[in-house]
Amino acid sequence: MSKNTPAGMAEAPRPGIVGARVQRREDPRLLTGRGSYTDDRKAAGAVHVAFCRSDRAHARIAGIDIAEAQQAPGVLGVFTAADIDAVARPIRATSNMPDYRATEFVPLARGKVRHVGEPVAAVVAENRYLAEDAAALVSVDYDPLPDAADPEAALEDRVLLHEEAGTNLIAAREFARGDVDAVMADAALVVEDRFRIRRKTPAAIENRCYLAEFDAGRQALTLHGTTQVPGLLRDALAEIFDLPGHRLRVVAPDVGGGFGAKASLYPEEVVVCALAMRLGRPVKWTGDRMEDLTATSQAFDEIVRAKLAFDADGRFLALEADVIGDIGAYSIYPWTASLEPVQVVSFLPGPYRIANYRGRVRAVATSKAPTGPYRGVGRPVSTFVMERLVDMAARRLDMDPAELRVRNLVRDEEFPYKSGSGIVWDRAGFQDCLRVTLDRFGYAERRAEQAAARERGRLVGIGIASYAELTGIGSRISAAPGMPINTGTERATIEIDSTGAVTAAFGIASHGQGLETTLAQIVAEELGVRVEDVGIVHGDSAAVAHSTGTYASRSTVLAGGAATLSARSLRAQVVKAASHLLEAAETDIEMRDGVVSVAGTDASITLRELARAFYTEMRRIPKEARESLDLSASATYDPFFGTTTAATHIAEVEIDPQTFGVAVRRYVVAEDCGRIVNPMIVDGQVHGGVAQGIGAALLEEVVHDDSGQLLTGSFVDYVVPSAAEIPDIDAAHLDTESPSTLGGYRGMGEGGTIGAPAAVANAVADALSGMDIQINELPVTPERLFRLIRPDL
Amino acid sequence: MERIDIGLTVNGVRHERQVEPRRLLSDFLREDLGLTGTHVGCEHGVCGACTVLLDGDSARSCLTFAVQCDGASVRTVEGLGAPGALHPLQESFRRHHALQCGFCTPGMLMTALDLLAKYPLATDDEIREGLSGNLCRCTGYVNIVNAIRETAAARGDDTG
Ligand code: FES
Ligand code: FES
Description:
The complex is a heterodimer. Chain A contains 21 helices and 29 strands. Chain A is of the alpha+beta class. Chain A has 3 domains: 179 residues, Aldehyde Oxidoreductase, domain 4 (2-Layer Sandwich); 185 residues, Aldehyde Oxidoreductase, domain 3, CATH 3.90.1170.50; 325 residues, Aldehyde oxidase/xanthine dehydrogenase, molybdopterin binding domain (Aldehyde Oxidoreductase, domain 4, 2-Layer Sandwich). The longest helix of chain A has 27 residues. By secondary structure, chain B is an alpha+beta fold. Chain B has 2 domains: 76 residues, Ubiquitin-like (UB roll); 66 residues, [2Fe-2S]-binding domain (DNA polymerase, domain 1, Orthogonal Bundle). Chain B has a 5-stranded mixed β-sheet with strand order 2-1-5-3-4, with helices on one face. In chain B, helix 2 crosses helix 5. Chains A and B meet through helix 1 and helix 19 of A and helix 2, helix 3, helix 4 and helix 5 of B. The complex binds FE2/S2 (inorganic) cluster (2 copies). One FE2/S2 (inorganic) cluster sits at the interface of chains B and A.
């Protein structure tokens, strides 16, 4: 689309392969039904597992009667906690963060259940129909335990979810800079409110599915699964089953979306592996949507009390926040329960200059599905709160909200800027993003149109949201606070084989991001071959010695960096080999489109010929030279700190005064996501992220009753936006290279979801600015709006 | 459980099978015929990933029993183009980057084929309304709408 062109900074045409709108190599197979998702895999002799899951939120298990299920047709066995615990060693999501309490990891419930949907027993049968029939025959005798679903009540510790922890407070942290109390007390102007985002679930369209195969002859276990983190899983399963990495392989084939939901260790993964080893047959579990909505990690469930002090010119003086994060029943492996709520306080000051800050967070266990990473992690919540405060302040000052942002966003000359929570922003276009967004949106005209529409009684609103995030995080910072797992490096191995083909292997796992294409672009550009010459292997723990996977907007930065380093070193080897073969100085050797040549001459050799000379025509390169060469290179890249990604979103909404439905009419994003590998893919990431953010703002809500019973167990109840609710989205890219990463890339996979809830919330508040109501809770469903607007009814 | 004889045509190929009355068409296609291009995202009729054409009309294969299809003609995504020879709608999806993870894509394509065969699709609102029974979590629908708009405009060429 022509409108999605780079904007802002100089539009220097980049002639290379990086930056080109290369068609995705994934597409032909995915468009024709020839993809290979986990559930598409057939394994000879495979049996199926179905889970009997808790229908209680909090109860003691008095007994489990499996007799009838065992007798059901086609059943091979019914298994409970003791069966799995006998072969699976315990594992916990540890952290060296003070005031953190790890909870146990529970493959099948031990003695009590802590949320609806928790697996209690596993039934294995010849096929999925029979397994589900038999699972329904498992009879569990529950003694009810008191309700433990409300996060604020849970903080009082009257009912404990994890008795051995002695408290429901799983994590606590405080960030502070400056004398917040004194500044707040002296400040002329203060806005404050209690904000709440209701629990979301990532809802990838492919449900979770796992297939474990055990080769008894080699004592080797292979797990194919819907995962974003094959390397991380391999390492966890190696610990659980005490297997060396060469007898344990985790493969993520085509994966139907993740958004964080497929980035943690799940009980079902451990159970299928344990049962495959026990039964000596491949064991498959295909989850259904209800299981996804009850037992896949959820997110964005926080209560935030926040307060912003500013002066009469609109300069922000101090910010204070108190966050309660409802983390659900378990501290998820490996990220821990602190991942989401701690990020809320870390990122709350946003891209603004705020000298004084205090953010306090308490993460509390409740009887709901565990929370885990979901696109944006914490920042959709922090951005919602901060951007609402900014708009509330603008209203108090009677200042245009765009102008108030201009006054407070960190300016170019202030980078690197250290935020109140200690995050250091490297150079990024905070002000530029705002400026470009307002331009593209036609802010002044739209405000005039809005005023005219309001004259006619229409409820039209415009909302802005600016944010900054850290992406491509290196080894200096853990992706989750205090987590003792290295998430700061990625590795690549690139080889030229004896046919002259180039294969680049990675541990990251593409699940919609098109990394097979973008990494091929990077390798092709750095090596000097055509994109189609580069084969990409990914999503396989056997591909490289160490990797965690794809999450946290890291794969382009980290795997792209590793690709760059290894391609450069491979290219040096090729040049050396060619200098022997073409009898020229290394400095005269060029490589382009897979052809190696001597500058200024017509002497050249193809990679295929070079590989043949290197591997099979043993006399062509002298032995000593040959032995010093290798047509293979591996490298690990560590960006150490990471880099800043920033954006401004602007949304225009109209509220239907009859139905209280909110329609998003216009949407513009300008994003500084660094050097762009493939603009088509970047646009797609922005569109998808924004759609998820609009869903979070207007529709999506995991609902539990007071006892913790789940009320949203289907896609009828948990409403994901359809095409009818999402507008066209105009995405502009600043394309300013990051100063902090190899190649200048910044991560950009999550930003859409970070900015959209805030922009939409501000637009809804703006549409209703004539009324005395506060938009402080998301989603603003028609029902919630109706109650706000007509409290009398 | 008793099994029932059925005979149906899938992508132009005749199949005779014995199936349990409760066997879903989606499972029949995926498990019994090995046509795993038809995906299952909810098994309760909301996401549209499982959409196929049943006697020319779009249908949710997760809400259809295989036995209901006795004598019917079913078209799945495998009946469109092949990797080296994409159908024009598939070409358009690729050109416009209308897929990311690809999981919703077969259902989107089959729904779009049905819409293109039956409706003018003169406005984006009409396209969006027509797609509202198919969920995509990756693309934000923007490029799917772009791809269908372009294909609709080029109708008259071979889109069926
Ligand atoms: S799987 Fe059939 S509609 Fe979702
Ligand atoms: S492309 Fe992933 S769900 Fe549509």
